[in-house]
Structure formats: structure tokens, C-alpha cells
């Protein structure tokens, strides 16, 4: 009986080491792979889509980002350059919605968004992102977890391009 109690206490103390209920670790920023021990990503197409409020980027103009699909518990969301293979997180996220928080990625304190807990999130969870001044094309990349053992990698939005026109009018 004592051995059983000891084992239960030990397992309870170790279990948080095998998942991240309070958000993705910074070590996940580059490859976006959750550090859930012994779990592989789903091989099927993700039941999620990343929607954006605009297809164009304009300096100082926020973009709203929504992950649509079934409810989820975990998320890691970044903006990345479409013009390179860099895994650097670009721009900055604005005040995270409830049950989410900032994650420092690429030296940027507001470079990514992750879950703050395992409460259910849905498509009413809207994220707001501001583009950096020096980027012409970006896309949003996400990892979404329905639960600790069920997650999808490399969920990608369409590409957003720098908009606006620095034109002169000819009469």
C-alpha cells in the first residue's frame, strides 16, 4: 500500500514534465513542435484554418488572426517571412485574449502567442498582430493541440503582401 501511494505521488509530480499546460516552451519557437514526451503529430490534415482580416500588410495597421475549426486547448502562433526560410518570429502580437499569453521567440518578447492554460479555445479567440516596418510578405504558422496527445503542426495561413501604394498622380 505504501509503495502504491509513493508511486501515485511520484507520478503526479512527474506528469507536468511531460506536457506544457501553461504554454509552449521557448525551445518550440523554431520548429513549433510541442515537447509532449512520447507523442507524434497527427498525420492527417489539420481540422483548423488560419483566417486573417486582410491579405495585405500596412505599417501600423493591425491584422486580426483567427484559428477556425474544432475547439482546441493548446496553441503556438507566429508570423514568419514568406521571402525566406527563416524561422524567426516577426512583428508583435497585441494584448493576448483570455487563456493565451505572449511567448518570447527570436528575442522578441511579443513574438509569438501560446496557451496560458488548457481551457478550451474556439474561433471566438481572436489574436491581433502588428507587422514590422521592414517586411514585404509574411504568413502565419500555428501548431494546434486538441489535447496533449492530439496535435497538428505547420498549419499555415495564406501569404500576406505589403500593400499600399507610394504612387504619384499624373494629370
TrEMBL record:
Keywords: Signal. InterPro entries: Ferric-chelate_Red/DefProt, Reeler_dom, Reeler_sf. It comes from the Eukaryota. One of its GO terms (cellular component) is membrane. Residues 1-19 form the signal peptide. Residues 14-171 form the Reelin domain. PANTHER family: CYTOCHROME B561/FERRIC REDUCTASE TRANSMEMBRANE, SI:DKEY-251I10.2. Belongs to the FRRS1 family. This is Si:dkey-251i10.2. It comes from Oncorhynchus mykiss (Rainbow trout). The lineage of its organism: Eukaryota, Metazoa, Chordata, Craniata, Vertebrata.
Amino acid at each position: 500500500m505504501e509503495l502504491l501511494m509513493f508511486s501515485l505521488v511520484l507520478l503526479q509530480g512527474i506528469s507536468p514534465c511531460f506536457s506544457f499546460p501553461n504554454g509552449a516552451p521557448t525551445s518550440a519557437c523554431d520548429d513549433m513542435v510541442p515537447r509532449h514526451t512520447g507523442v507524434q503529430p497527427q498525420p492527417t490534415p489539420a481540422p483548423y484554418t488560419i483566417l486573417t482580416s486582410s491579405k495585405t500588410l500596412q505599417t501600423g495597421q493591425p491584422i486580426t488572426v483567427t484559428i477556425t475549426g474544432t475547439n482546441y486547448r493548446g496553441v503556438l502562433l507566429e508570423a514568419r517571412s514568406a521571402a525566406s526560410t527563416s524561422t524567426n518570429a516577426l512583428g508583435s502580437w497585441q494584448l493576448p485574449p483570455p487563456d493565451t499569453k505572449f511567448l518570447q521567440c527570436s528575442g522578441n518578447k511579443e513574438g509569438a502567442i501560446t496557451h496560458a492554460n488548457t481551457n478550451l479555445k474556439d474561433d471566438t479567440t481572436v489574436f491581433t498582430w502588428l507587422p514590422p516596418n521592414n517586411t514585404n510578405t509574411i504568413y502565419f504558422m500555428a501548431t494546434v493541440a486538441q489535447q496533449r496527445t492530439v496535435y497538428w503542426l505547420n498549419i499555415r495561413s495564406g501569404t500576406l503582401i505589403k500593400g499600399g501604394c507610394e504612387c504619384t498622380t499624373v494629370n
